[in-house]
Amino acid sequence: xxxxxxxxxxxxxxxxxxxxxxxxxxxxxxxxxxxxxxxxxxxxxxxxxxxxxxxxxxxxxxxxxxxxxxxxxxxxxxxxxxxxxxxxxxxxxxxxxxxxxxxxxxxxxxxxxxxxxxxxxxxxxxxxxxxxxxxxxxxxxxxxxxxxxxxxxxxxxxxxxxxxxxxxxxxxxxxxxxxxxxxxxxxxxxxxxxxxxxxxxxxxxxxxxxxxxxxxxxxxxxxxxxxxxxxxxxxxxxxxxxxxxxxxxxxxxxxxxxxxxxxxxxxxxxxxxxxxxxxxxxxxxxxxxxxxxxxxxxxxxxxxxxxxxxxxxxxxxxxxxxxxxxxxxxxxxxxxxxxxxxxxxxxxxxxxxxxxxxxxxxxxxxxxxxxxxxxxxxxxxxxxxxxxxxxxxxxxxxxxxxxxxxxxxxxxxxxxxxxxxx
Length: 422
Fold this sequence. Notes:
Helix 6 (104-115) links the parallel strand 3 and strand 4 (120-125). The protein has helices spanning 4-7, 20-23, 28-34, 51-61, 76-87, 104-115, 129-132, 135-138, 151-164, 179-185, 189-206, 216-223, 235-249, 253-265, 270-285, 291-306, 311-323, 330-345, 360-364, 403-416, and strands spanning 41-44, 66-70, 93-97, 120-125, 142-145, 172-175, 211-214. The strands form two sheets. It has a five-stranded parallel sheet with strand order 2-3-4-1-5, with helices on both faces. It has a two-stranded parallel ribbon with strand order 6-7. The chain is of the alpha/beta class. It has four domains: 19-145, Rossmann fold; 151-223, Helicase, Ruva Protein, domain 3, CATH 1.10.8.60; 235-323, Zinc Finger, Delta Prime, domain 3 (Up-down Bundle), CATH 1.20.272.10; 346-416, post-AAA+ oligomerization domain-like (Orthogonal Bundle). The model is unreliable at 225-229 (pLDDT under 50).
């Protein structure tokens, strides 16, 4: 007998619960399915949110041949076999689960087939495709983000299973408490249905009359796990990395190293940890200590060369360094402010004096005219406008109050006087 989660896997688009931003009435995927024009794409989201199901449903909706392989147990040979089979068909879809586990050479084997339309690729990943999928392949794919199911959506999944599953419908099931089912699942419908099935099996053994009461205690007993266990594919993955980052940001090396140990002992990928340290070095330290980014980048390179278990020492050194560094989020706030301006004003024209003038015609119409070459002036500085006219004099970067950025503020104030309020 198939597991409950597999028995309840939706067959039609209308049966899918969640992801309405993609498959709702105005969802972009619904529109592309209606037009029978599915692009090669990557589904990015946490486990159990419907990535595989959505790929299968899309193939069924457009009546396309469907091939499915897993990056865990497939290689270049399997990819080439599928591509060769797809050549004999039209509109074939190749679904690759956990595509982030493919090496560069394996991903490269897909390029020509995707580019020439031999296959429509749908990849599924729980990791950020910007980091885990090579640029050549990523540039040929649309990326769609799937989100964890809400409590209300998870309840819909439970009710649907109880009412429609061929086996569960024969039982008298009372949902007295559902908090544990929701909590343990953490937005993962597959995990929740598996846990529900285990709970029902245990309860049915104790109830000959087929009446089963679902309680938090029964679910916890079936799960046989404690809240503090680390699950790198579930709730603890997100909770512990959050505690880890916030401890470093809060300058607490003791807590930071503790959460690092929790992740290491839980089997977390050391590259994932090192990558998060790289982001933190700019987001939370930035120019308050520029060496932080150099340290984090060196750490990232080193853990890839050394591997586990010795990489734990390198990670510990970097974590302690970043935790004890002065902090500033000024660069993070600056790019947020700059992007907000771009969103508000759109594509503002580049001032004429800043434009490049590689041809005589461009020079004639004013490109580059009156540009002041900074190195021709005292202190290698010329006070001229570098922003588009509509947002001139706008202060985007506000230096922090740490020693390094106080020096930066002083430098900017000496150069720009009162222009930016430094």
